[in-house]
Amino acid sequence: MSDALKALLGTNTDVKATVHMKRIGADFTVKAIDGDTVSRIQEQCTHYSGKGNKRTKHVDENAFGMLIVAEGCVDPDFSNAELMRKYGASDPGDCVKKALLAGEIARLSGKILDISGFEDEDEDEVKN
Which of helix, strand or coil describes residue 78? Predict the structure, then answer.
């Protein structure tokens, strides 16, 4: 059995991390999300303009970040009815938008994507 196979068989996809939110004075707990969820969120945030060969794809990065946080933040839970009521939010993504500052959303979504395997790691050089 290869080392990679042994490692994969012994891993757990239930990855969590803590992010301290200075302005709020609390630690947020975030979890890794799977590729299907990231794809679904990206699809929700993608819009097209133009027709035929001139059709272009636009991803709303702000909406993408908000939905990543709404999906990947365990504590606090942005789908909490009391939290949504306080911010007058229509859904968890809207709650993220209204409760957090832009930089906080970017920081949390970045951490969620990092622990989901999207981190910037130096790739091992391919040996010929």
Answer: coil
Would you state the structure tokens that stand for residue 77, as one six-digit string?
Answer: 């839970």
User: Any residues with CB less than 8 A from the CB of 126 and at least 6 apart, and which?
Assistant: none
DSSP state of 54: G
Read off the tokens for 92: 């968890």
Cis peptide before 92 (omega within 30 of 0): no
Q: What are phi and psi of 74, to 5 degrees?
A: -85, -45
| pTM as predicted | 0.84
Q: What is the pLDDT of residues 104-128, one digit of tens each?
A: 999 999 999 999 998 765 544 443 3
Residue 92 to residue 108: CA distance in whole angstroms: 15
